[in-house]
Amino acid sequence: MIFRRLFPHPLLSILLILVWMMLVNRFAWGSLVFAVLLSIVVPALIAPYWPDRPRIRRPIKFLVYAAMVVWDIIVANIQVARIVLFKRNRDLKPAWINVPLELTAPEAIAVLGGTITLTPGTVTCDMSEEGGALLVHCLHAPDPDAVRDEIKTRYEARLKEIFE
To answer: What pTM does this model have?
Structure first.
């Protein structure tokens, strides 16, 4: 019980400690103590405004998803570098793609939008008012339907397993 009171959002607390220590850029006990204090105070202050904590139903799958996204970012960096260096402008096929969503959890939709934006060559530009679709811009998409299908199968389906 006392753990829940001190850490109402344990994942946020861990993230705050990690980010603070990375910002300091060196290990010091004082910095660690301050990071722990931040990880207690900040979530306690925002807890009343965030009553429904996101539930990650399968944390192992979330870690696998994160590793997959890092790999996809590396691969997309290489692909975008090739496009920028070797493809002529007139050969580019940029596209706006509407991605209908099956996800309903706001946190899952935010992670999907972030994943798309973090992957070079694509950016999430807008979401429909009802939250039923994302508008994505692709730097080069000769087959927009294939890009949409890849987003849905590679990312959305996995996020649905993790969050819902």
So the answer is: 0.77
